[in-house]
Amino acid sequence: MSGDCCKLPPVQAEYEPKGSYSEINGFKTYAVGPENAKVAVVSVYDVFGYLPQILQGADLIASQGYKVLMPDFLLGDYTTAEHFAPGNEEKRNAYFSKFPGKVDTQTEPYIKYIQSLKSSNKYDKIISIGYCWGYKVIFNGQKNAKVDALIGCHPSFAAKEDGDNVDVPIALLPSQGEDMDVMNAISKAAESKNPGKNVLKHYPDMPHGWMAARGDLKGGKATDEYVDGYNVVAKFIKSVL
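and the corresponding structure tokens:
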């Protein structure tokens, strides 16, 4: 895909986020993009929280004229490099064992967050993007949140029936860590409802998390794939408006 199809700004290895933090519907929220934007993109981050790579991704999306909102649904309880240090397997396993439950407990706050945006009548369209566990939150919440499109980046906890539960266009960007049989099944179900409006692009050489905390922005193929992923996202959003 052409890197200039949506004219995203250049990606930077050393990055200063352009947005700011405020409280929206009870959650600390990273917000970036024009105040008069008519499209909101609600982003559910990965388990590392507000790291530079995912904030730069939010800024790239916002550069297209959208308001990107990233609520702190984990309330600061992020994983850290310490969890991955040798000898810390017990801490790491204890942290990640909570996440199937985290998906369930954060779905309702996500729904309420979306409903608060809708009640403001500020936005004509609302789109959600979820990274890692955030994918499952937005797909689980769609029945009640009813956003206009869904985007899943390196999705965690994906199941074939996820596609049966949504009736809006979706984009899926799985990495080498995802089961492509599951991804294909979800995409096929979505395509049966909205033919030609869905996107499935596999990044088999990229590690899980490459569009967020594990993004390598120092140059080379990993950076190129990060840029391509956000171009796919930007083009998909444009196509569903």
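(Above: one complete record from the training split.) The radius of gyration is 17 Å.
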